[in-house]
Amino acid sequence: MNDMTDMNDKPAFLANAARLTHAFFDRDTETVARELLGCLLVHRSDGVERIGRIVETEAYLGVEDLAAHSSKGITPRTRIMFGPAGYAYVYLIYGMHHCINVVTGPPGEGTAVLLRALEPVRNLPGKTSGPGLLCKAMGIDRRLNGHDFCSDDLHILARPDGYAAPVVHRPRIGVDYAGEWAARPLRFYLEGNSHVSRK
């Protein structure tokens, strides 16, 4: 469903969907990246509730991971990555595209999961295949940097009961500068999903 819909016109499977807690994110980053697939990202702003199914993620593994922003240590930009799990790390690339990550693991590790692509579920009229397009469609920008991912206006709902799809592991995109880390299979996506940014 790509068109804007009435606020009360929710898909039936959302009725009993459980909201993910901080404990879900306070775990191994690769595990979180895989288990987020099929879950539902929800952002409420300006009277509109936007929902998309997460179909592609990337794991960033902290200070040793040369592709991670946190590899440079704690800076004003990356401080949020070193904080508690379950908070949003939002940054701008190329001066125009926002990207959103959810911080994972215990404080001090600098780990996070990038949300790369969504399958539109509700009120997402734009393209959602790629982290910048995802944020634009969801109405996400730097104002949500440091925001609680377990709040009423920004959260993730667990996969609906019975939902399952094979998961593909591939190298991350756009991190050729990261040496041997560029080849690590830390990008995860739902096999066969048409909204994945790159097969």
Automatic annotation (TrEMBL):
SUPFAM superfamilies per the UniProt record, alphabetical: FMT C-terminal domain-like (SSF50486)
Organism domain of life: Bacteria
Keywords of the record: DNA damage, DNA repair, Hydrolase
InterPro entries: Formyl_transferase-like_C_sf, MPG, MPG_sf
Enzyme superclass (EC): hydrolase
Pfam families: Pur_DNA_glyco
Cross-referenced CDD domains: AAG
Annotated EC: 3.2.2.-
Family statement drawn from the similarity comment of this UniProt entry: Belongs to the DNA glycosylase MPG family.
UniProt-recorded name of the protein: Putative 3-methyladenine DNA glycosylase
Source taxonomy: Bacteria, Pseudomonadati, Pseudomonadota, Betaproteobacteria, Burkholderiales
